[in-house]
Write a structure and sequence with these properties.
4 copies of one chain form a homotetramer. The first copy, chain A, has 9 helices and no strands. Chain A is an all-alpha fold. In chain A, helix 2 (about 30-35) crosses helix 3 (about 40-45). Chain A is elongated and about 65 Å long. Chain D binds a DNA duplex through helix 3.
DNA sequence: GATGAATGAGCCTTCATTCAT
DNA sequence: GATGAATGAAGGCTCATTCAT
């Protein structure tokens, strides 16, 4: 009675998410989305101007939700590096709990003409941004040495991404089994890198 | 014994590589490959049974070359971890020198129905295998502690992958600029993880 | 008795005229007419049963106005041939002053399935009728010899039509520049034809 | 054995001409053309890039033939005005013998977005050109006085056009019945106009 | 081995029309 | 009277694949 507007639009998005996740962009038919919505094809086109727009809308919605969740989860940690760590864990866990979502986000964005690649870059950029902001804070607070946090964020993201894809297509290793090593490598590696940097900066003359 | 047979096949593969790299699997037309070969469409189908087969052949050829190169480059290092490091550097450098190749390998395999996803998994599995073998050796030799080298290899691969993709679509950071941090994080992170593991294993009772 | 009813209907007609004139029947969308009316699509369908009916209504309205104007203008001429001439001038001038109107009337009626062709025939028939009636009078009064006034009327109409279309699409020659020649050819030609006819009729035996 | 290349293309053109003539551009389906060719839809698209291109090709072909015929027929007349007259008769007769052709040429070009209108203008421009060239010659030779032959040509064309359309849609009057009047009006009218012009030019002061 | 005309299944998109509110 | 979301029947165009020559 209060507000449920745009219900239809959301229903479409929901159905489209499922269809796209299952079949990928190209294999998915607008007809299938329509069927899954018990709407006619024309009905879909009333709400979205094209299949591509629909796909992007699905992706954005997913990314929004994931980022919100990640930020919620990493909010109340004392140390910045812990926040970053929490973000890492949150992304990893969230995606490992929803194969579909993971598949869409990790995989579907690729390889469909440049518009899609750009979109994939956007999406990953947003995720990286979240991690980066925590890492920046960690650097500022001296929790880790000065490193290129943008690169670091993408290293993290790439590692997460690959592990999840691997899991999606081979079923192993279980995310929960891989997570500890992932965390150690990325965090300790980063600390170490920070120290190395710091040493370098201090020791012009002695160092390497 | 000498005669370069299969020349035509190779010419097709070459042309196909360029076309697929530029436009991705779906956007690339068999006609375009034909044009780039000064062969007719029919001619292509004499050598490859389908567009998909052609695409896979291109991918395999690329992967073969890359792996050969990587193994060559990491062969004569004394320490196993150094070999792994060399492999990392080799992959990263090779791909960063040939955008097209990188694009194809990193990106094109995704999202085109399950056959493609399987292929992508294969390819990355092969790359990971190379790294893993070195890491296994490093563990055996005690250069690093006992870790799940398969997971580690994928962490490495994922990080490399993401950094390269990032570079491909945004042009920054330059691979050469990102490489040092990448190496430090991955290698030091791995060392650290190995130690933690070792500690754990030794010290049941005391540890954590 | 006073109250302007059917305002909405007229607003639609007005808007539709503009839209149809600009884009032609097929290119024009009912949505566009709706937008131009600040009415919804459904609103239009309350007043007109179909796009086709709407189009025809627009055409009829235009024809009514034009014919009324032409008749007004040719009313108070003494000679019948002058009336015809005045009609010619009136049509030509009226249309050359409103490109849109001309475009719709001259062009839009064509080629859209037989219903449309029939309509076009109707419309031109009405115009021809006006001219014909004047010519008939001229024949009766002996201003010109006995000719097939229906054919003559269509000759006139066709010439007018073509000149205007030409002007619409090429911008030249300006109607005012073409009008004198048009009048001379059509009127003198008709006079001459009438005389020839007359001669023929009289002279059975000598003539041809 | 010698030359019949492009047979298929011609077969398509032939079939398309029939289909377009019968149903008009919009009502005609590419499928129908395909059926009429016993070719698949794809086959059509191998030879023509779009429905529109196909339509234009049909129109051009028709115009080419008609113009060739007209020029042939008006070639060996002594007087230039006779040539023009012969052209008039030839166009009129040719079209009145083939309803389809007439319908396509006279009518189909209209009203389908500006591309079509431009085409119609082209086509009629070409026809007018033929007539105009004869009229120009007639003026040069002094057969008629100096008039705007371009306008005159369009007057002729418009009259022909309208008479034929009228006949196409109402079945009357038969072209052969209308032709004499048409010729007299147009030719005598033009002579008269030429004289009027000439008089004007000579007689500044006395005239009018 | 190679050609290229032809196939044909398929898909996205359009848009006049309807109807519950 | 009016709205606008929804329908559904088309239709143009694509393109991997085939095959007679």
């Amino acid at each position: 009675m209060t507000a449920p507007k745009e219900i239809t639009r959301d229903r479409i998005l929901e159905a489209a998410e499922a269809v796209f996740a299952e079949k990928g962009y190209h294999e998915a038919l607008v007809d299938e989305v329509a069927d899954a919505t018990s709407l006619s094809k024309g009905g879909i086109y009333f709400h979205f101007p094209s299949k591509e727009h629909l796909f992007f809308a699905v992706l954005d919605r997913l990314a929004d939700r994931l980022i919100a969740k990640v930020e919620r989860e990493s909010a109340n940690r004392p140390a910045a590096l812990e926040k970053a760590d929490a973000a890492l864990v949150a992304v990893f866990s969230a995606l490992s709990k929803r194969r579909r979502l993971a598949k869409l986000l990790m995989v579907s964005g690729y390889s469909m003409g440049n518009a899609f690649e750009r979109k994939r870059a956007d999406l990953f950029g947003r995720f990286a941004g979240v991690i980066k902001s925590h890492l920046d804070e960690a650097v500022e607070r001296g929790e880790i040495g000065p490193v290129d946090t943008a690169v670091a964020a993408h290293i993290w993201l790439g590692a997460i991404n690959e592990l999840l894809i691997r899991w999606l297509y081979t079923g192993a290793p279980a995310p929960s089994a891989a997570l500890p090593l992932l965390r150690t490598v990325l965090i300790d590696g980063l600390k170490s890198a920070g120290m190395a940097r710091t040493r370098e900066e201090r020791g012009n003359g002695r160092g390497r």
